[in-house]
Each structure stands twice: as structure tokens, then as C-alpha cells.
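Re-run requested by the PI after the first attempt was lost when the workstation crashed. Everything re-entered from the original request form. Ligand of interest: calcium ion.
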Amino acid sequence: MQPSTKKLLLALVLGVVMVGLFFVPFAAAPASDKSAAEVPTQPAASTATPVPPTPTQTPATTPAAAPSPRLTPAPALQPLTVYTYTVVNTFPHDRNGFTQGLIYLDGIFYEGTGLTGRSTLRKVDVETGSVLQMINLPAELFGEGITVLGNRLYQLTWKAGRGFVYNKDTFEIIQEFSYPTEGWGITHDGRRLIMSDGSDTLYFWDPDTLQEIGRVHVFDQRGPVVRLNELEYINGEVFANVWQTSTIARINPETGQVTGWILLDGLLTPADLTEPVDVLNGIAYDAATDRLFITGKFWPKVFEIKLAPLTR
Ligand SMILES: [Ca+2]
């Protein structure tokens, strides 16, 4: 090949390369223009497509999955019975007794009273209301519920987290203990202490270690039932009067369900309702003769009542 031919070929090759380089940007440009043209449609399509399905799909799947595990194990609620009462007997009660705990045992009442500086533990004659034996709590304490299991009498205090175990006959302190909640009411089912703290919770305690061994939340058809105060375990149920009301809840202690409401309005006559009479608070039960006793803070009387279901 001659040099002139070589130069011609080289010029041709260079020309082709230069023409190629010149056209490449324009060849790429339409592609970028195309994608640029698609930009407005793509986001529109991407927002339109994924967003709406998300909310519609999520509820469509979530409720289908969620309720079934809740509904399946939910036990059928026991029927709820409402009770009124008849008064069988009336006994005198110490008007200075700010009743916080009441039990019947071996022919007498045991009563714990409250208020700071005035709290006591006492034995009371049922028929006369006279105080047979009494000790004062330390002046700084506000006494609360009491119960007797075996030879041991347990007494709670309100906010101090301090409880006492006494010899039920002598009122000698056997043991002092502490607990993390407020103390309101206390009773027992023969093997466990059952206590309330003003919430919707009933706590089960080991009577020897005084440690919690279980709890249930109390509820009825409307939801949690709070302010459970003085307690009494009666034939497999826990009776709890609800603070600042004249009603007693009958509670299944295994499930926490309220199976009955006892309406006790009208126990005190207008003549009884003089200052400083306070709220109903005090449930005691004589299992031997099936007698149910009710009183309240500074009430002048203890009432023995019979329950009567209200017809619906
Ligand atoms: Ca009681």
C-alpha cells in the first residue's frame, strides 16, 4: 500500500470515529428524554398503585387474623344477677368505729378500724355492740382490712405497706410484714389470703410467706370494677363492697368476673344518717347459721340481711 493510500484510509477511519463521537450524545439523548418523559408518569403510577392498596389490604388481612384468636378463647360470661335485701336483724354498732374490716368468728365480731391516730383492732359482742377487747395501732398508721386464718389474725394498713399478724386470742403481734401496694380489704379461702388495694385487682397471698402467689382482675359486662374495698369469702365467692357506693360485688375469684351485684341502698334510715356517718364498709359471714352481716364507717348499726334476687 502506498503512503497516500494509507493516509486516505487513516483519514477515513478518523472521520468515522469523529462522526461516531459526534452522534453518540445525540443517540443517548433521546433515551434520556424518554426516561425524562416517563418521570411524571412513573411517580404518578407508583404513588397511585402502592399507596391505596396498602391501607385497604392491611385492614383486610389484619382484622381477619386478629379477632379470631381473641374470640376463640373468650369464655362465655356467667349470667349476672342483681340482688336486693331484707333486714333480718339489727344490732348496735360503736359510732366511733370507722369500720375497715369485719368478720364473724365463734360468736363474736372481730373488727379493724381506721383513721390515723384512731385505728384499732377489737373484739365486739354481736348482740350489744360493746367492745370486749381492743388494742390501738401505732398512731401513724391507718388500719384497714382484717381476717383470721387458723390462729392468726391479719391486719392491713392503708398506705404504709405494713401489715400485722396477731394471735387472734391475745392480739399479741406474731409477725410484721410489708407489701408493695396500698392495703384495703382482706379475706381468705381457707388456703390463700385474698386482698384488695383499691384497684380492680384481687391479690392472692401465701398465708405463711405473705408473698403474692396470684392475682385476678375483677370485671363485669361494662369493664373493670375498681375500688374493691372490704372483702368476705362466702361459699366460693368473694364479696367486695365498692368504696363510696352501697353496692357489693359477688366475684368469681378464679376468673375475676362479677356474677352478681347486691344493691344495699336504704339500709340506714334518715335518722341514722347523721354526721359523721360514712360509707358502707363491712361484710361478715357466719357460715354455721348462714347469716350475712353488713355495717359501715361510723354506722350506728350492724344489719343482718337476707339477699333476694331482683326479677328481671
Ligand atoms: Ca370482712
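Saved to the shared folder this time. Residues 101-103, 187, 230-232, 283-284 surround calcium ion (CB under 6 Å).
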